[in-house]
Amino acid sequence: MTTLSRATLAGLPAGTLRPGHDLAAIRTGIVHFGPGAFHRAHQAAFIDKVLDSDPRWGIAAVSLRSRTTTDALKAQDGLYTLAVIDREPSTRIIAAHSDAIGPGEGARLRALLASPEVRIATSTVTEKGYCLGGDGTLDMTHPDIVHDRARPEEPASVIGWIVTGLADRRAAGVAPFAMLCCDNMTGNGGKLRAACVALAREWDADLADWIAAEVAFPDSMVDSITPASDAAFLATVAGDLGVEDKAAVQRESFTQWVLQRFDMADGPDLAAAGVTLTSDVRGYEQAKLRILNGSHSSLAYIGLLLGHETVFEAMSDAALGDFVTRLAHQNIAASLGPVDGLDVPGYVDAVLDRFRNPAIRHLLAQIAWDGSQKLPYRLLDTTAAALDAGRPVERLAVPVAAWIAFLGNKAKAGETITDPLAEVLAAAATDAAPVEAVLALRQVFPARLAEDPRYREALGAAFEAVQAGKLGALLKG
User: Fold this and answer.
1) N or C end of the chain: which has fewer CB within 10 A?
2) Distance in Å from the first CA to the final CA of the chain
3) How far is Cα 125 from Cα 109, in angstroms, rounded to an integer?
4) How far apart, in whole angstroms, are the C-alpha atoms of residue 320 and residue 314?
5) What percent of the chain has pLDDT over 70?
6) What integer pLDDT is reported at residue 20 of this predicted model?
């Protein structure tokens, strides 16, 4: 079978959306570290729209560890398929990548980072790719950072490459590129700035001061469910298009990129491509954590008790779907203050609609992992805000009661609890007084919440109803 390329583009089936720009005119203006499936389905799709009117912003895809994706992009002239899976699926060819750089091509990467035409660098390397410690600062003992401190001319880490690229530009009198972290870390721009400044200070104090003063590191938030591009998916794409595409990706129709406003004269028109520019990325992060993730966890623990397997199945349960809708609109959204540019009720509706997507098979059991780490941010902060404001917390207590019951069921059946506190949680959930025992866990429940009589009563009553088989009655509340 032939491979997707510029030569085969014209022969693709009707209905396949093709690039809206001249592929030969694209220049490289962005360097991206970590061209995995999420980047190709998300940021690259936004930039593909930018290129329709401004060819300066082609992306050089950089992989420091594996050449699988970069080799596929090279073989396919930078083209690949984006399949949007939803009630109304679509197929689009993305042509946002002007270059691809894999391991062993350090000289090419260094030249690109130094080029005045490159104005932006972006990254999706997962949180661990930034070599941060548990406190969110650069881990100077990380093997890659130890290497980079000693050999800055041959970086091993993303941080090392960013700082080396900026150092070369400063030495040449070229303005710095803006550095956009697109991984899901709270305050990601600030953390990346601090890490780069810390490494630069190991090399040159003046360079560190210049980076701190002159380089833009805006915060960002990204969101879109992107299932893995497994063999079955790639085979389906090949069958549908009649060409092989080793870089094809799939995602839901909803996609969100929230970016802190930053100064860049004559930069790309990201807003026209659908990027939300705001002064309050933190507000969006909090909305996502509480509304999307809080509702997700609620669906998971209650849905599993009701025998459901996926988010779609849980939302299709009329009683549970109605409960989560009321929870999100009436209880969770009430905990958020105004957010610059965000229609909170509209965002709630969009989130709930995503949960009803029949094409996405999102397992409740997976969402239920690591509850002790997730619930404080997803539901307990919301609950504390409600108590502080004198609002009711009975409905917010139901998913937490379901979590305790979920833990107890797992422990009693001898099944694995996927959580860093698994042993402690199992013991507490099977205690003679499980609610009291779980509330005593300060790793999960802060004292001001656990000791509040209003919350203790609400959680105790909800758990008692769950144990008595009255979950259905709880969902009507």
Assistant:
1) N
2) 58
3) 17
4) 7
5) 100
6) 96
User: What was the pLDDT predicted at 248?
Assistant: 98
pLDDT tier, 134 (very low <50, low <70, confident <90, very high otherwise): confident
Distance CA(5)–CA(93), nearest Å, equals: 10
Identify whether the C-beta of residue 8 lies closer than 8 Å to the C-beta of residue 243.
yes
pTM of the model: 0.90
Number of neighbouring beta carbons within 10 Å of residue 458: 22
Report the pLDDT averaged over residues 343-355: 97
Say whether pLDDT at 33 is over 90: yes
Buried b (16+ CB within 10 A) or exposed e, 181-215: bbbbbeebbbbbbbbbbbbbbbbeeebbebbeeeb
Contacts of 292 (CB under 8 A, 6+ apart): 223, 351
Q: Are 327 and 298 in contact (CB under 8 A)?
A: yes
pLDDT band at residue 225 using 50, 70 and 90 as cut-offs: very high
Other beta carbons within 10 Å of 279: 10
CB atoms under 10 Å from CB of 38, counted, come to 21
Q: How far is Cα 6 from Cα 103, in angstroms, rounded to an integer?
A: 25
Strands ordered across the beta sheet of 249-251: 90-94, 80-84, 249-251
Residue 184 banded pLDDT, cuts 50, 70, 90: confident
Distances (CA, A) of 138 to 63, 210, 384, 469: 21, 18, 32, 49
Which two structure tokens, joined as six digits, stand for 200? 């630069």
SS3 letters across the chain: CCECCHHHHCCCCCCCECCCCCHHHCCEEEEEECCCHHHHHCHHHHHHHHHCCCHHHEEEEECCCCCHHHHHHHHCCCCEEEEECCCCCEEEEECCEEEEECCCCHHHHHHHHHCCCCCEEEECCCHHHHCECCCCCECCCCHHHHHHHHCCCCCCCHHHHHHHHHHHHHHHCCCCCEEEECCCCCCHHHHHHHHHHHHHHHHCHHHHHHHHHHCCCCCEEEECCCCCCCHHHHHHHHHHHCCECCCCEEECCCCEEEEECCCCCCCCCCHHHCCEEECCHHHHHHHHHHHHHHHHHHHHHHHHHCCCCEHHHHHHCHHHHHHHHHHHHHHHHHHCCCCCCCCHHHHHHHHHHHHCCCCCCCEHHHHCCCHHHHHHHHHHHHHHHHHHHCCCCHHHHHHHHHHHHHHHHHHHHCCCCCCCCHHHHHHHHCCCCHHHHHHCCCCCCCHHHHCCHHHHHHHHHHHHHHHCCCHHHHHCC
Question: Quick one: residue 337, left, alpha or beta (phi over 0 = left, psi -120 to 50 = alpha)?
Answer: beta
